[in-house]
Amino acid sequence: MRLERDIIMALRQVYDPEIPVNVYDLGLIYEVRVDDDHNVYIQMTLTAPNCPMADYVVEQVRAAVADVPGVVTVRVDLVFEPVWDKSRMSEEALVELGLDED
Predict the structure, then answer these.
(1) Which site among 22, 61, 69, 84 is 20 to 30 Å from 16 CA-CA?
(2) Is 32 exposed, middle or buried (0-12, 13-18, 19+ CB in 10 A)?
(3) Does residue 13 register a pLDDT over 60?
(4) CB distance 13 to 7 below 8 Å
(5) What region does 70 belong to: left with phi over 0, alpha with psi -120 to 50, or beta?
């Protein structure tokens, strides 16, 4: 679906303030769901539960997705189960941070 692809592109424009990788490739986005009325639900986490920038990151995600043409509403839920770890990162993110196993 084109809308989901556009949402993922928007999420890739939001960067973790402490790590130079976008929240999508960092693996912080656990779920993106779009209903028939173009309401968007996002479940996400952070690299650490005590992140002082939590509200900022969640709001950046919400705003980026809300700006996608066709999106009606955005709900972002911040969760810490399952716990985030580097296995959730994309190959590109691992390479960017020098964490690839090669």
Answers:
(1) 69
(2) middle
(3) yes
(4) no
(5) left
Q: How far apart are CA 96 and CA 78, in angstroms?
A: 25
On whether the pTM is more than 0.85, the answer is yes
What is the C-alpha separation between 69 and 83, in angstroms, rounded? 32
CB-based contact 86:101 (threshold 8 Å): no
Torsion of Cα atoms, 79 then 32 then 73 then 68, to 10°: 130
What are the tens digits of pLDDT across the range 15-67? 988 888 999 999 999 999 999 999 999 999 998 888 888 999 999 999 999 99
